[in-house]
Amino acid sequence: MLGVVELLFELLFEIIFEGAICGFFGLLAELISAIFEKTGDAIESASDAIEGATEAAVKAKVGFLILLIMLVMGAAAGYVISLVFPERIFQTIPVTGISLLITPLLMGGLMSLVGVWKANHDCAASFLGTFMGGAIFGLAAAGTRLVILSQG
């Protein structure tokens, strides 16, 4: 019985700590993406005055940069998590890579809730504040962690 309680405590501690690491990198990614969104909006306003054809190109470039930020920050979070917890969470389960499903779903749901909270408090939510943004971030984190743990 004590072994089960100890295992549950370790699992809960790891989930909370991983959430804190992902939260830090998620907030950093949201800050960087907000800067790019504001810059893109300013460029878009300037391009409206110049010519309408550049507007679509600017939106595509800003969208690509935001996606790249989500992937890079997610990979950084996965790397840090791998340094802190260098072992698989569920060592008894023979299926490798289950976190590729669980982490994106959890991060997507969590970031969606953050986006709703920001919208209810009159703050504009960035792409990370959507389910898709959180899921992309979580997939990058889980994928990086899987690659690192598979090599060791």
Number of domains: 1
Oligomeric status: single chain
- Which structural class do you get from the secondary structure elements? mainly alpha
H-E string = HHHH
The share of residues in helices is over 70%
Distance between the termini: 31 Å
Largest sheet: none
Low-pLDDT stretches = none
Q: Which radius of gyration do the C-alpha atoms yield?
A: 18 Å
The shape, in one word, is elongated
Average of per-residue pLDDT values: 78
Tally of individual helices: 4
**Extended strand count:** 0
Beta-strand residue fraction: under 5%
Tell me what you see in this structure.
This protein has helices spanning about 1-50, 55-85, 100-120, 130-150. The model has no long low-confidence stretch (mean pLDDT about 80). The longest helix is centred in the first third of the chain and has 49 residues, at about 1-50. It is built from four helices and no strands. It has about 150 residues and is mostly helical. It starts with a helix and ends with a helix. Helix 1 (about 1-50) packs antiparallel against helix 2 (about 55-85), helix 2 packs across helix 4 and helix 3 (about 100-120) runs antiparallel to helix 4. The chain is elongated, with a radius of gyration of 18 Å. The protein has one domain.
Show the helix and strand layout:
Layout (H helix, E strand, L loop, with lengths): L1 H49 L2 H32 L14 H22 L10 H21 L1
Overview in brief:
The chain is mostly helical. It has helices at residues 2-50, 53-84, 99-120, 131-151.
Write a concise keyword list for the protein shown above.
mainly alpha; 0% strand; elongated; 152 residues; single chain
